[in-house]
Structure formats: C-alpha cells, structure tokens
Design a protein that fits this description.
two-stranded antiparallel ribbon; single chain; alpha+beta; elongated; Alpha-Beta Plaits; 3 helices; 118 residues
C-alpha cells in the first residue's frame, strides 16, 4: 500500500517501489557495502531475465503512514558488521524520512554475504 498525503491542492502518493529505490541507493553508497542480495526466488528469475536494479533485496511495507524496511546486503570482508549495519539503518531512516515525510517504524539489515577482495 503506497504512502498518501493530502494537501490543499491534491494528493501525493509515494509507492513502495520508490522507497525501495531510495533505500537501495543509500545502502550501496555506505562504506563497506558491496551490493545487494536477492531476497526471493522470484528475484533470481528477474536477474536472469535482465531486471537488475537497486530494489533487489529490499522489501518495503507501508501501513498507516509508517514504513518498515528489510534490506539484504553483501559486505566487504574485514568491516565491523555491527557498526556497518547501524550506519545503513541510520542512513536509510534519515533519507526516507527526509524525502517522503513518512515515519520509519523499523529498518532490518540482513548481511547475507561477505565478499573477500583479492
């Protein structure tokens, strides 16, 4: 269900896909995040057939003007995972609240893979 805000001149709607794009962009720009991980078999099929975007590995649920986000990431070997996850949570919360005006209920960061750079 998208976020909806009423104003004097009309209605503003922000879709869950738009919030997924924001979260994906923010997460991939955090130090130590290598990329996103797929969260379902359906996403694996999308990647096979060429639909690769920042939204993969992100699930957004909007209810009562609050947003819950679950994000699956790959991180660089050697980074402090706890600190990295907290930074990702804070950055996503700040960006989504600032850009959409919605209240963030929670952000769940799942580290699904660690990439070793040679």
């Amino acid at each position: 269900m998208p976020l909806k805000k009423l104003s004097d001149v009309g209605e503003i709607t922000v879709t869950e896909k738009a919030i997924e794009e924001i979260a994906g962009h923010v997460a991939t720009h955090c130090y130590g995040v290598v990329g996103m991980c797929v969260k379902s078999k359906a996403e694996v099929l999308k990647r096979v057939f060429g639909s690769d975007s920042l939204r993969k590995g992100i699930k957004v649920v909007c209810r009562d003007n609050t947003v819950s986000i679950e994000i699956h990431i790959k991180v660089t070997y050697g980074v402090n995972i706890k600190v990295l996850a907290e930074n990702v949570k804070q950055d996503i919360t700040y960006a989504v609240e600032k850009m959409t005006g919605a209240k963030i209920k929670d952000v769940t960061v799942c580290v699904d893979d660690i990439v070793v750079n040679k």
